[in-house]
Amino acid sequence: MDHNTPTTISALEATSEELISENNVDQQEIEKFSAMAEQWWDLEGDFKPLHMLNPTRLEYIEQGVQGLFGKKIVDVGCGGGILAESMAIKGAEVVGIDMAHASLQIARLHALETETKVTYKKTTAEQFAEANAEQFDVVTCMEMLEHVPDPASVIQACCDLVKPGGTVYFSTINKTWKAYLMMILGAEHVLKWVPKGTHEYEKFIRPSQLLSAIDATQLHCDDLCGVEYSPLSSDFKITKNVDVNYMLKCTKVI
What's the pTM value of the predicted model, to 2 decimals? Predict the structure, then answer.
């Protein structure tokens, strides 16, 4: 595997008007997650790793904005609503957006079952930002950038959605040999935590690429941290090691 091979997401460095007009959607990715939709809230199913990860990322988000109560939040690429619903339970006013209809239906059903108030909409980040510019205190975009053709377009949309002085969170997977071993060989083939084909190495994003795209917007990166799985405690922990999973906290410059 050649780490010097030009990445297929070179659009991180460029504008993306053409892709925006095409909704910046990978239909194969939509179909892949739609096929797994019924598994979203099965704690032992295909999305078990996300349920294990969610308390860690929720705490990171909550601490970064000094509490979620009363905050107006949009969760970009919300899937079945695992993060969106957990933020709503903390008292936030949450809108979850995604392009997978089946996942959104599951999210809505689960919110009804748990009597949790979350609004779900089928739309792209770009389309939603056009109609809701600077309307949100917090924007979250977690485990989503590696599933779209043009991550830079989504990053700009997240910047457009958040109010000046507001906070944007991103999380994704680094493009390293270690990430390939753990996220594809390990998680998909050995541990079988997620279905084969869930991740594509060529779509993984190096922190330098993500930071470059962020620098092209009004966002400023305040924090970059890694997320590592601890076999001993069977949970995820915040770390300085960004070799595999990592998260960023950004502020929109006023």
Answer: 0.85
